[in-house]
Structures
1.
Amino acid sequence: MVQGSPFVVVANRLPVDEVTDDTPSSRTSGGRRWRPSPGGLVTALHPVLAEHKGTWIGWSGTPGPAPDPFEVDGIKLVPMSLSEDEVERYYEGQSNATIWPLYHDNVEPPIFRRRWRDTYREVNRRYAAAAAKVAAPGATVWVQDYQLQLVPAMLREQRPDLLIGFFLHIPFPPIELFMQLPQRAEVLRGLLGADLVGFQQRLGAQNFLRLSKHLLGTPYSGSTLEYEGRKVKAEAFPISIDFAEMQRLADNPLVRERAKQIRAELGDPKTVILGVDRLDYTKGIEHRLKAFRELLADGKLSVPESVMVQVATPSRERVEHYQALRVKVEREVGRINGDFGKVGVPAVHYLHQSYSRSELAALYCAADVMMVTPLRDGMNLVAKEYVAARAENGGALVLSEFAGAAGELRQAFLCNPHDLDGVKDALMRAVTVDEGEARRRMSIMQRHLRKHDVAAWASEFLDSLAEIGGTEKNRL
Ligand code: ADP
Ligand code: G6P
């Protein structure tokens, strides 16, 4: 059994993917093989976890009994088991049909079910117990995201010696939305169990501070509030990407060659317009398809000079809103191709698939215009990845004002995705921008991201948490 880690990450999912081929870097555990998943969070936390012999607690992604704890590249992994029922109620239900839509501005109506809440609580309790078991005395525990909002308080109850951080990867809603949540006081008290609660944007932190005062009468000053005789800090830490990794990939001759090949396969159009998202109703996929269709109908764009590639990664496929979205998106793609495609040249290439990092990098390199048009998004890493991949190539980013990334990527072609004419206008400006201007915009955004990468994000959060820990100790 894993014991006594000075640094523990608790997240819904483990940072590894199960491998089915013969990848040499994979590790075995109970007959199953794993490798680190390519996400930015893993890359950011890997050095900290490796240096401190850290532990990551999370679910393997499939229902049923969990494999035994194992190690991948110096990180101890403690898999959590979720039964079929728990996947349905805690993951698909309370996390992704109640909290996800509510925190994303109610863009789809959240569904409230009592039995989902009960299971959410039970599963959160199990994650907290697992963290309490592996954390060394005085350890730092960093809890991630909306699936585990009750964990900080549950953990503190069992282990008051721990320094507890929480980071919310999605937006934190304004008071009037949060107040709809039947479990609202419990969720808020859950988060207040942390010493530091991190948000993507300042607005999220402010919403949280105001909500605590409104719901629990907790006084605050600046970013610090007082709760049950403790200080809790709420601040913004905008997450970022592994900029160097994406730049390296985009510089790789094989990736460049693949980008050329992609353009050739698309019929060497003048303009390749790209969208890359999980197939999620928060991402504004339909809105951007509609803007493209209207520009084709207006004659401002035409096939085969302009083509669109929409990658829509399968996601949460058993949740009703996601099934409905898939039908709507696929109908719209069919309509556009029916009206504007030519034999052998569809107007929209729609790919409901997952890709490797290098294939994604090749797509970014191949695209003249990247469309990121969420109705609401905590950050949106795809926008940042596209910028990182465009080293010398210019290219233009159309970006929704409602993505957290819009707070940093000010040289993008910003738009309001609800305003169709505005989206069309931003897309046309991106398509027609001259090369010098495109390069100028891209290089300003790159300069920003080179400095504000995911490693900077993790160390800012952890330094801030350590400072709180230091202050606490000084007070005692
Ligand atoms: P979200 O976290 O809501 O899915 P983000 O844009 O912040 O949205 O992050 C998505 C991450 O998933 C990015 O790192 C992106 O590269 C990756 N990704 C998106 N689509 C695919 C895909 N089809 N295959 C593999 N990775 C993908
Ligand atoms: C968002 C959430 C993450 C989640 C990811 C993929 O980024 O903030 O917590 O892991 O989407 O969603 P999934 O439901 O497949 O884990």
2.
Amino acid sequence: MRVATSIPDLSTLLNSIPRPLGLVPTMGALHDGHLALVEKARRENQSLVATIFVNPTQFGPQEDLSGYPRDENRDLDMLRQHGVDLVFAPTAEEMYPQGFDTWVDVGALGDRLEGAHRPGHFRGVATVVTKLFGLVRPDRAYFGQKDGQQLAVIRRIVRDLNLGLEVVAVPTVRDPDGLAQSSRNAYLTPSQRKAAPVVYRSLCRAKTLWSNGERDADKLRAEVRAGLEGEPLVETIDYASVAHAESLDELDQASAGAMVSVAVRIGRTRLIDNLILE
Ligand code: AMP
């Protein structure tokens, strides 16, 4: 496995790489969720590039950029063991040199749900992902269903800007108690960690209602909220949404393929999760 930290080194190493080429962008602090992306990409491509970059432009001023978990040596070991050919791990200066001033604005899709609570977040995501696509020029790029809005935003960028690559979604990897794996789970205290599966359980309550024939999206949202409100350690519910998985428009009537999603705060940790109704 080769590691490039500069753009010229990355370009040189990419010159001789066999195609098709898969890309797995990450912010590091890797867990089994990331590895599911890596494993799928490994199976489906001749070559595999992973990136590790804690992208400062997707963090708000009050968010956890400086405290975001980082362990690059461990990450590199894990990627090596999973057959990654090339890792790109640039510095912030490499990605955003002096004078950088071009942004990818994803419009309405980036303003709702997460975007409403994290202004500018998707502008940062869209910009860095577009840069990574330009730098690596993959045939396929792999993203987790865990970040359902991010997936919708990236699909839209690829479509609207004709980026000509395939976006592949990978199902959410969960701990045995249902908690979606996330680098931010490391912030949870033991009691908060015990409470956190309420997020998935609440989504499942809506799915059960749906399976029993309920189509009124307000009832499904209320069911999710009722589940979350039953857990005293859930301090804030940012949203409980039933939306079209691509447009992210809130639905009156739920339909197959709709995304039920939530964001809550437990202590200082913000957790997001979602389920697709089938
Ligand atoms: P991050 O490092 O948090 O930016 O995540 C990098 C990629 O891994 C994104 O495409 C995420 O959606 C994906 N990912 C994160 N957690 C999970 C998970 N539990 N299951 C599947 N994919 C995940």
